[in-house]
Amino acid sequence: MKTLVLQEPGHFILTDTDAPQSPAPGEALVRVVRVGICGTDLHAFEGTQPFFDYPRILGHELAVEIVAINGETPLSVGDICAVRPYMNCGECIACRQGKTNCCENLQVIGVHYDGGMREQIIVPLDKLHPTPGLPVEQVALVETLSIGAHAVRRAQLQTGEHTLVIGAGPIGLGVAQFARAAGAHVIVMDINPDRLAFCRDGLGFEHTIDARHSPEEQLRALCDGDLPTAVFDATGSSKSMHQAFMYVAHGGRLIFVGLFKGEISFSDPYFHSHEMTILSSRNATAADFEWVIEALTNGDVSLAGWITHQATPEELVTVFPGWLNPEAGVIKAMLTLESRVR
Fold this sequence. Notes:
Elements (H helix, E strand, L loop, with lengths): L1 E7 L2 E6 L10 E11 L1 H8 L14 E10 L9 E4 L2 E2 L5 H4 L10 E2 L11 E5 L3 E3 L5 H4 L2 H14 L6 E5 L3 H12 L3 E6 L2 H10 L4 E4 L4 H8 L7 E4 L4 H6 L9 E4 L11 H6 L3 E4 L5 H13 L8 E5 L1 H7 L12 E5 L6
Parallel strand pairs: 10-11, 10-13, 11-12, 13-14, 14-15, 16-17
Antiparallel strand pairs: 1-2, 3-4, 3-8, 3-17, 4-5, 5-9, 6-7
Helix pairs in contact: 4-5, 4-10
GO molecular function, one term: oxidoreductase activity
Keywords: Oxidoreductase
InterPro entries: ADH-like_C, ADH-like_N, GroES-like_sf, NAD(P)-bd_dom_sf, Zn_alcohol_dh
């Protein structure tokens, strides 16, 4: 079967690999239909992704069609599903508390072991989320949106709360939309004017800030003289994450959604003076996936204009490097493996 392998940083190959065997009990054989390309994939291509080894078959943002099932399940052959790609142990303290997204022994499809940039894979039945009626392009974005939804749930936003989302990439856009769905007054900040324009014109966010031009002054003008009480950083940028401390109101909280390969440091007196709460947000839970699927089904979240670039396996080897160029204008890129589905 067709398989894309990232042999080493900067080098994809398209090859043939053996198809999976029949699924074991509790598993399903699925046909991969779409694969969303996310920051993890881009960083892996660059060679800057933490927790990563080569060669690797990428792909964890998946829309799949069930081919065969082994076990009791309400799912059926032919169902189109999103995949929750976080393989947890079920035994560690995090799993015992229901925090399967940060399992001590977590293995992520397409990161810690081979993923979905191939025609078929085996997936545990309990990691499949049916998506009746959703277009497959939206199904492939459920995982991306779930990361944003999880961060919003972590933050426990209040209705009307002034909330800043830094970073208007796909993760930040997901955070912003679910923060708005939770009733927050959302401000989006970025350094890319085209992405800010997309937030305003494509997604209906009234308030955006170009971080290159007096961001604190702009924030205070939008927050009645105060700073936001909830600040999400979804950039994965060391500079941005360090600067984010300066945007949090006294008594507020800072939620790091993105990560980078390095360390965060901050002024302890400043941190204590604000009685600031710092939260990390990692991956997503089954409940987050269900919230996202429900929101997409009900039209509470818009994906209009998100997918700016698509490629077949044959094309991806050539075009992928260009997707890292900011001038390419990529919001969300997608690998298309099969077109004969909804």
